[in-house]
Amino acid sequence: MEFIDYYKVLGITKTASEADVKKAYRKLARTYHPDLNPNDKEAERKFKELNEANEVLSHKENRAKYDKYGEHWKNGEAYEQAQNQQRSAGQQRAYSGQQGYGQQDYSDFFESMFSGGQQQRAAYRGQDYTTELHLELLDVLEDHKRTLTVNGKNIRITVPAGVANGQTIKINNHGGKSVGNGPTGDLFITFIINNNTAFHRERADLFITQEIPLLTAVLGGSQLIKTLDGTVKLTLKQGTQNGTKVKLTGKGFPKYKEAGSHGDLYVTYQVVVPDMLSRKQKELYEELLKLED
């Protein structure tokens, strides 16, 4: 198999930081994602290479092995162990004169480990895959099915309600195949949640600022408040102050892995002072001012 320079794939240098790796991957993944390039084999190939590069360079241990062993990074430690065994055997022969592994013995051992030999073939765990799933905030109000394309393979998953922005979940046995019948790697999915609503989210709680007219704040009255599942009518008491906060229990976001349970919605009132008055309104306000004096 032709050697792939993962640094070149992501367009970064070997001195790139972990943040640089993530930034480069996200930018290129959006460009070559199969959903944006249907039936484009070249884009599909590049997207697969991007995932492979990210899977290696975004993990410190894997990256260190890749930097040290290059294309043989998966089996590099076993190769080094074999070399150590050879050196140890040579030392034993030098001191005791007894026969150990000869050159042919070592070659056979190396071949059986790395070249598909049937005897003593080492088993290695398959490579873990990582990917991102970009969703809108309203997409995670309920559990739903979603199909991901990872390394050219379609994987259908259930997106859990209430999943958080930046949260990573593991799908067992959906990573790379192993070498020598070892266990399959896992798939790690990081959720990127775009909040294009008026609500600010903190875990399962939601926060929103609601403007109210000055007269409603002074005299009291009712105000419609928008929630994720409709609107509710709240009663404001006379003399409601700017910055007053009220809590709507259970009107927040779904709680992750807690079916039927929601956080709370916190509403902050912002009193709107009119910047333009009719002549009649101005007269009335002036009359109120006189009464206060």
Write a concise keyword list for the protein shown above:
8 helices, alpha+beta, HSP40/DNAj peptide-binding domain, elongated, Helix Hairpins, 4-stranded mixed sheet, 3 domains, 25% strand, 293 residues, 11 strands
Architecture overview:
With 293 residues, the chain is an alpha+beta fold. The chain has three domains: 109 residues, Orthogonal Bundle (Helix Hairpins); 65 residues, HSP40/DNAj peptide-binding domain, CATH 2.60.260; 93 residues, HSP40/DNAj peptide-binding domain. 34% of the residues lie in helices and 25% in strands. The chain is built from eight helices and eleven strands. The strands form four sheets. Strands 6-7-11-10 form a four-stranded mixed sheet. Helix 2 packs antiparallel against helix 3. The radius of gyration is 31 Å and the shape is elongated. The chain starts with 5 loop residues before the first helix and ends with a helix. About 9% of the residues have low confidence.
Question: What's the layout of helices and strands?
Answer:
Layout: H1 6-10, H2 18-32, H3 41-57, H4 60-69, H5 76-96, H6 103-114, E1 129-136, E2 144-150, E3 153-159, E4 168-171, E5 187-194, E6 200-202, E7 205-213, H7 214-219, E8 221-227, E9 230-236, E10 245-248, E11 265-272, H8 279-292
Parallel strand pairs: 1-5, 7-11
Antiparallel strand pairs: 2-3, 4-5, 6-7, 8-9, 10-11
Helix pairs in contact: 2-3, 5-6
